[in-house]
Amino acid sequence: MTFRLYYWPTIPGRGEFVRLALEAAGADYVDVGRTQGASAVAEMINRGMHFAPPILENDYESVSHVAHILAWLSYPLDLAPPNERDFRRMEQLQLTVTDFVAEIHDVHHPLGPTVYYEDIVDVAQSGARAFLHDRLPAFLAYFERTLQENPYGSDWLVGDGCTTLDLSLFQVMRGLRYAFPNAMRLMTTPWLNELALRVAQRRRIRSYLDSDRRIAFNNDGIFRHYPELDEQV
Ligand SMILES: N[C@@H](CCC(=O)N[C@@H](CS)C(=O)NCC(=O)O)C(=O)O
Predict the structure, then answer these.
(1) Nearest-CA neighbor of 33 among 11, 1, 65, 49?
(2) Which residue from 67, 76, 94 is spatially nearest to 26, judged by alpha carbons?
(3) Which CATH class is domain 84-201?
(4) Which residue's CA is minimally distant from atom 1 of ligand 1?
(5) CATH 3.40.50.2000 corresponds to the domain 3-74
(6) From the CB of 19, is ligand 1 less than 6 Å away?
(7) pLDDT in tens, 154-174
(8) Tens digits of per-residue pLDDT, 101-132?
(9) 16, 44, 51, best to mutate for ligand 1 pocket (most atoms within 8 Å of CB)
(10) How much is the average pLDDT of 89-106?
(11) What is the pLDDT of residue 1?
């Protein structure tokens, strides 16, 4: 069955977490924003069922919110842990990724998405200082510990195989290294680095990353590189 992904065509953004799962599984999908333009995404939102993209649809239903979409996809795409308890653990960790991503976004938009970064650089700089000093190390340490303490071994975050959660952490690590290269050099994340490598080396992910379907990070997305924020560490 073909999935249809609705997401803004020019940024990796939150759509990338969904794209990575579809790509890792070799799923059949149409990237509606990239094939039909942003207006097709706006039309989907204007229909009123979902507040914001990403939205994933098949012939029977449409679902929004990254964590919810990934929970939906993980079993059919064979990217879920084998039992219910570990599935709940995966969901819980994915919701922590949701919180982490929101905080990363808020570094450049501390007063919400409608106030331009250029108008509040000084506010953003003090927010960046707090984020880089406290929140970034706290989130990273949490995921490092999760990997280290996985009872099935430290290759993956939950269970003994790659899940949608591992793909998301790969994207977060890549995004953080793009946005905060200076700050990230000061973070010690050996387990997450290994995880990101392991994900990048998967056959389908490798060919996806080399393809033009993969959108490069840029300063319109969630992970933005502003040197004046990165140097607040
Ligand atoms: N909680 C949602 C957040 C969705 C979201 O904020 N989407 C952004 C793009 S990454 C958007 O276009 N938001 C429009 C809006 O909030 O009005 C998720 O995890 O998917």
Answers:
(1) 11
(2) 76
(3) mainly alpha
(4) 65
(5) no
(6) no
(7) 999 999 999 999 999 999 999
(8) 999 999 999 999 999 999 999 999 999 999 99
(9) 51
(10) 98
(11) 87
